[in-house]
Amino acid sequence: MSAREPSYFAKCACGKFCAELYGEPFLMGGANCYCNDCVAACYYCDDKARKEGKTNISMRCADYQGAGAAISCWLLDNLRITSGKDQLRGFKMSAKSPLCRTYTACCCTPMIYIGQKFAPRWRAFNLNCVTRASDGQPLKPTEMSNVMGDFALKEAWDQIPAGQPKYKMIPWGLFPKVLAVIFLPFLFPGSTVKVLEEDRAVPGMFIDAAMVTEVVSAETYVAAGVRVPKALLEDKKGK
User: Fold this and answer.
1) CATH number of residue 76's parent domain
2) Number of domains in the chain
3) Among candidates 103, 127, 124, 122, which has minimal Cα distance to 113?
4) Which of 52, 68, 179, 233 is 20 to 30 A from 170 in CA distance terms?
5) pLDDT tens-digit profile of 90-145?
6) Residue 199 phi/psi, 5° resolution?
7) 161-177: b (≥16 Cβ within 10 Å) or e
8) Which residues are within 8 A (CB) of 114 and not within 5 positions of it... i.e. 6 or more apart?
9) CB count, 10 Å around CB of 123?
10) Residue 31 class from Cβ within 10 Å (0-12 exposed, 13-18 middle, 19+ buried)?
11) Do the Cβ atoms of 135 and 146 come closer than 8 Å?
12) Is 233 inside any structural domain?
């Protein structure tokens, strides 16, 4: 992979973290996810940056409460972290969540948004961090799909510009591709991405989510203006 020329870079606001991205994004060109977890996670990282006096690259797709998270999905075969692995910090949306999301310690930029068992062959990056390798310009997908509308804050969902595709969940046409990538490693073990020993403890890449101790609070969901998930309420009761 080292001999390949990257098509894009994913960098945090201060530049300490950088990943090379090859080819084009997997699934759709880009998506704004309006599910409660993604909206709350955006708020969590932005609020952390404010409290620490840092300037990050927000993952929000627009500047209003409840705006979705702008994501760009890449196959693991088509990405390589070249610097800043030590800057990634993992967090979860509930104590028992199997997913690990990340931000960078240097500038609190949300970076790798979906990892671990749910996505054995791909990772979702902060779309707002992705730039073309050729000229440094932002990645501008030819089509942006707004997904998970059933979970969206109505006021935010209504502000989506006219003409942009809106889906209550995700486009039906994506289900075969998503299922294929999720189940391919189980059906054909030889297709599993080889894990570098140095990446086994990298948040958002291959670390076991059970090892991640930073958990978003119910108050974060409330501040973000979205519904607090049942799992988080159960975590709170159990304490």
Assistant:
1) 2.170.150.70
2) 1
3) 124
4) 233
5) 999 988 888 889 999 999 999 998 766 666 678 889 999 999 999 999 998 877 88
6) -95, -5
7) eeeeeebeebeeebeee
8) 71, 99, 101, 122, 123, 124
9) 25
10) buried
11) no
12) no
Residue whose tokens read 């998970």: 148
Residue at 239 is within a domain: no
Least confident of 43-52, 64-73, 95-104, 227-236: 227-236
136: left (phi over 0), alpha (psi -120 to 50) or beta: left
